[in-house]
Amino acid sequence: MPSLNPASRERVLVLLRHARAESWGETDHDRHLADEGRADAGAAGRWLAEQGLVPDHALVSSATRTQETWQSLAEAAGWSLEPQLDDGLYSAGPDTVLDLVRGTSSEARTLVVIGHNPTVAYLAQMLDDGDGDPTAAADMVMGYPTCALTVLTFDGDWSALDLASATVTAFHVGRA
User: What Gene3D superfamilies does UniProt report for this protein, alphabetically (predicted)?
Assistant: First the structure.
């Protein structure tokens, strides 16, 4: 697998679907992670840390399950970064999430986005330029279960990120 550490103008984008949540809650927005989901998010965090990934910015849906996914992920990875919570990520489509990513400060080199499906899976597929890891790209297309993540690299400023402009370097499903 190629190095996932950003170099020169390269940016790293991690798109993550939240971990497994309870099937009930007062509202869908308020659903908590299941115990299995917390463990899976921790496994994903450890995997990202093993890859040498350390985000300097994170966009996280304001839903309870995405916030809890971030907490377990970050704790397991050893990250102390406070995420930017976004109400719009809860119901956003791929184009809206892409716009949010484009609005990220150019100082950020590695960005983690935690959202919901089918949006996360669609966006990962839409950004894929076809030049990356063919196995990772194929696995991503075959299914995007809870706690699945795609790592993409992009050479340029976030504001220039466009469809088919990022390279898939890894696809991983966090499982404890």
Answer: Phosphoglycerate mutase-like
Sequence-distant (6+) residues with CB within 8 A of 96 are 88
d(CA 127, CA 94): 10
pLDDT on residue 95: 96
- Bridge partners (DSSP) listed for residue 93: none
Count up the domains in the chain and report the number. 1
Instruction: Give the residue among 115, 61, 55, 105 at the shortest CA–CA distance from 80.
Output: 55
| Beta-carbon count within 10 A of 164 CB | 11
The CATH code of the domain that includes 48 is: 3.40.50.1240
For residue 99 the two structure tokens come to 């716009």
Q: Which two tokens stand for residue 68?
A: 């809890």
**Positions of the chain with pLDDT under 70:** 1-8
Q: What is the pTM of this model?
A: 0.94
In a domain, 19, yes or no: yes
